[in-house]
Amino acid sequence: MASKVAEELESKLSLEGSESGSLAPSSTSGGGGGKKKDKKEKKDKPAAAAAAAAAPQPQRGVKAAAMTQPDPEDPLAHKYGDPPMVQSTERTGREWTRVEDLSPEMEGKTVLVRARIHTTRGKGKSAFLVLRQRTATVQAVLFADDTTVSRGMVKYACGIPKESIVDVEGVVALPQAPVESCSQKDVELAVTGIRAITRAGPLPFEVVDAARSEAEVAAAAARGESLATVSQDIRLDNRVVDLRTPANQAIFRVQSAVSQLSRNKWMNPKEAIEYGMIDKVLTTPTPKMPGSGRNAVNFRRAEAPGAQDIGV
């Protein structure tokens, strides 16, 4: 009996030894192969990154270009899409309505408006646009019903960049509640057609951010919110965009009104003779001094009189 037990123990020990011996080399070889593989992957990473950088990148504007034209199978394809270049080959006879002239009395009337896209907000089958024309703004809405507005039209409208100039055809409607974010708060446009006349490029900043006043930013900070602002340096570097804000529009409107008042009310149109200096005095927004007799200069071998010498 004891001999049988001893034989069984010896056989078990021999089996365990053979199994451990057979497993040890494989684990060692497997571990070494894994380390070599990791080293190779690390060595290949820089080469893969360089190859990816050298590969041709997709050009900007390809996605936007695909959205400039409607779906040919859309039954409302003739209602949206970028028009061809205007070459003044014909007169369309179309009449545009100014945004500031839109009023509740025009409810149900179909109008054509040319304006810039101020903001865009799309959700599912609907889209909300704010159209801006100078200082006047109005809300334009699109709801896909496959009768007057299709899903393709909604997608096209949402893909137009902000500050682009668009022609919008729509029906004047009364909103359920006043649109407080627009100057024409008592009306909105139910869009039936939209075309991007001039698409805007990438903007250095949003006009909405530049239009915020310090009071609005302070009120948002008091509520624990953070609003984007635009520094003065960025504004001056991109003056063309900065001049589109309502505050700057108002400043230049006041300046223009003062100049017109000066010409129409203070000067006798029958007797006044405007010289170049008058125009500069009225329109140059900097400190200036009219010239005097000491400003005489030689012009074509003759002495030219100063501003005071000619009665200015």
Automatic annotation (TrEMBL):
Residue ranges annotated for the OB domain, each copy included: 111-195
Composition-biased stretches (Low complexity): 14-28
Region (Disordered): 1-96, 284-312
InterPro entries given in the database record: aa-tRNA-synth_II/BPL/LPL (IPR045864), Asp-tRNA_synthase_2 (IPR004523), ClpP/TepA (IPR023562), NA-bd_OB-fold (IPR012340), NA-bd_OB_tRNA (IPR004365)
GO annotation, cellular component aspect: aminoacyl-tRNA synthetase multienzyme complex; cytosol
GO molecular function terms listed in the Swiss-Prot or TrEMBL record: aspartate-tRNA ligase activity; ATP binding; RNA binding
Any Pfam family matching the protein: CLP_protease
Name of this chain's protein: Aspartyl-tRNA synthetase
Organism: Raphidocelis subcapitata
Higher taxonomy: Eukaryota, Viridiplantae, Chlorophyta, core chlorophytes, Chlorophyceae
